[in-house]
Design brief:
Blueprint: H1 10-30, H2 37-51, E1 58-59, E2 62-63, H3 69-78, H4 85-111, H5 113-125, H6 127-132, H7 139-159, H8 163-181, H9 185-190, H10 199-207, H11 209-229, H12 254-267, H13 291-307, H14 321-338, H15 340-370, E3 373-375, H16 382-408, H17 415-441, H18 444-452, E4 474-477, H19 484-488, E5 493-496, E6 510-515, E7 524-528, E8 533-534, E9 539-544, E10 554-560, E11 570-578
Helix pairs in contact: 1-4, 1-5, 1-17, 2-3, 3-4, 4-5, 4-7, 4-14, 5-14, 5-17, 7-8, 8-11, 13-14, 15-16, 15-17, 16-17
């Protein structure tokens, strides 16, 4: 029977890097732009690049209060070009990879290569990272800087007794956290320091000169930066929210149970190990020192804080993922040696789920290629659909065979190999089946945006759209809603008019306007460049079983759902040409 005494070599580190690419890069490219922060950051970064003003964020021509670090990173990775899906999501992706690298190095220094490998795998393969690592948001960025601040403080302070360097690096990382998520990271950084193993000693360090001087510099830097340089919001509630707040609130009795269940799901499959760092019987196997005690405080304090916080989201606990990953890596070897049968069964279950899903995906995409299943797409041509269906069927077949082979050998495989591989296999099978199916059909907002740009691929094109305009052309928006996701697919600068028609240029020969109706501006001749698009249209999946009407084919499409009582909202793209007097 294999044990965990085998140590991950360089080949397995390379394999872990390849898994990181497979788990995060395809979803980053396949998933369409989400609403909320993704669309908002894309629009802000585009305006920064077009007007060259990076210190005053603007959204659709109007100044807004947002945390600027993420849009700055989007501009950096755009290399002077308009933001793409890659540049929009790359900061979030790199923050997750950076967190995995940080946890791997920390656990490796404490317990060896096995602990480092597992700590990095926990970050890369848990549900929370897989969900947010392919989506533009500030949660992973703030979690990375906060975790880096904690780790640097402990290494340079309690371990090496270089307190000037400890407080300097920690508060420098905290400053970047303030730039990405506001002042909320400051209490999250300081609260765990107060309940460590030796609180009086920590309190003395808080009152010592290195901390007082560094904190004064930090406060002065924040004051100068916010008041005189960027004027970003300091508190999270002062920042612009790109999504409407949830109206549904849980009672104080249901909140802890709902929050705990979501945290358990977000950490899967590694939540099965979450009890080990807090087990008193396993503390005798921990490395000498106070690191594990300090990391337990880093996990316990945010958990206790958000557990009873009204309306707290489970993703708020993301800063605790790094310390938790290191603790799981340190306790992994002794835990799997004691409970090997249970964790072997868990890995086998993941392989079975992956193989089943991949086999179903193989059959589905093969039937799409053969024409027995008719899968409608709004933008893909028939020939391209056949090629993609064949490639997806081959990929699913390869994944199913690998999952079956690894499932049969799971008893002979070390668990530090089986658990990350089985988790990655399940994630890839979900991507090849459900993820590709969603991308194939095109979401409602993307379809609306492409319809406004007349870029749905219809031949011949019934409308001219923006194909004949220059990339630097400005499109004006007259409406009560920003339509951030839809406007992204126009690939043009958007200016939202608050006082129509006063905001339109008077002497410009041609202007382009998004409006609900034909503009009443008599000085211009208006021409429709797009169809009248229903922006409130929502479609649902419809499955039509084989019958005589569809030539005995299974037909899958997304059709508009009936919304009784809902008032449709239309939008259309117009070109206004100045009339000759």
């Amino acid at each position: 029977m294999p044990t965990t005494k085998s140590i991950p070599g360089s080949a397995w580190l390379i394999l872990l890097c390849l898994l990181a690419l497979l788990l995060y890069v395809p979803p980053m490219l396949l998933s369409e732009l989400h609403g909320g922060e993704e669309a908002g950051f894309a629009a802000i970064a585009r305006e920064m690049l077009s007007n060259g003003n990076f210190l005053q964020p603007r959204l659709q021509g109007n100044a807004v209060k947002v945390f600027p670090l993420y849009p700055w990173l989007v501009c950096l990775f755009s290399f002077g070009r308009p933001p793409s899906l890659v540049s929009i999501r790359l900061p979030a992706l790199l923050s997750v990879w950076g967190l995995a690298l940080l946890c791997g190095i920390t656990a490796h220094r404490s317990k060896g290569k096995l602990a480092g490998f597992i700590a990095a795998s926990v970050v890369l393969c848990c549900v929370a990272s897989l969900r947010i690592g392919c989506r533009a948001q500030t949660a992973s960025l703030a979690a990375f800087f906060l975790t880096l601040a904690w780790f640097c403080w402990y290494r340079f302070g309690p371990q090496e007794q270089r307190w000037h360097l400890a407080w300097g690096t920690a508060l420098a990382c905290l400053f970047f956290g303030v730039m990405s998520a506001g002042a909320a990271v400051i209490p999250l950084f300081y609260l765990p320091l107060l309940i460590t193993r030796n609180p009086p000693r920590t309190l003395r360090q808080l009152q010592a000169a290195p901390h007082v001087i560094t904190l004064a510099i930090f406060a002065l830097l924040c004051l100068v930066y916010i008041k005189f340089i960027c004027q970003q919001p300091f508190f999270p509630w002062d920042a612009l929210s790109f999504s409407a707040p949830e109206s549904r609130s849980l009672s104080l009795l249901r909140q802890p149970f709902s929050f705990s269940a979501k945290v358990f799901v977000y950490l899967l499959p590694w939540s099965l190990f979450a009890w080990a760092p807090f087990c008193l019987a396993l503390r005798q196997f921990e490395p000498v020192g106070t690191m594990c005690s300090f990391f337990r405080a880093l996990v316990f304090v945010p958990l206790l804080l958000f557990l009873f916080w009204p309306g707290a989201a489970a993703i708020w606990l993301l800063p605790a993922l790094g310390p938790m990953a290191v603790l799981i890596g340190i306790h992994f070897e002794i835990t799997v040696n004691w409970y090997r049968r249970f964790f072997t069964w868990s890995a086998r279950l993941l392989y079975i789920m992956s193989a089943s899903l991949a086999a179903a995906g193989t059959a589905f995409w093969l039937l799409v290629f053969l024409g027995n299943i008719e899968l409608h797409s709004a933008i893909l041509e028939k020939r391209l659909q056949d090629i993609l269906a064949l490639l997806l069927a081959l990929a699913c077949a390869i994944l199913a065979s690998l999952s079956i082979k690894l499932c049969r050998r799971v008893k002979k495989t070390p668990l530090w190999q089986a658990l990350p591989l089985s988790s990655a296999a399940l994630r890839i099978s979900l991507l090849l089946s459900i993820g590709c199916l969603q991308s194939w059909s095109v979401g409602d907002r993307k379809l609306a945006g492409l319809s406004l740009a007349a870029g749905t691929g219809e031949q011949p094109a019934p409308y001219a759209g923006l194909s004949q305009t220059k990339p630097e052309t400005t499109v004006y928006l007259h409406g009560d809603y920003a339509y951030l996701s839809e406007c992204y697919y126009l690939r043009r600068d958007i200016v939202r008019l608050t006082n129509f028609p006063a905001g339109l240029p008077d002497k410009q020969e041609q202007i382009y306007l998004l409006s609900q109706r034909q503009p009443a501006v008599p000085s211009r001749q208006w021409e429709a460049l797009s169809p009248n698009v229903n922006m409130s249209l929502r479609r649902q999946w419809q499955w039509r079983l084989p019958n005589k009407n569809n030539q005995y084919k299974l037909s899958i499409s997304r059709q508009a759902e009936s919304q009784p009582g809902a008032q449709p909202t239309y939008l259309r793209l117009y070109k206004g040409t100045l009339k000759n007097e």
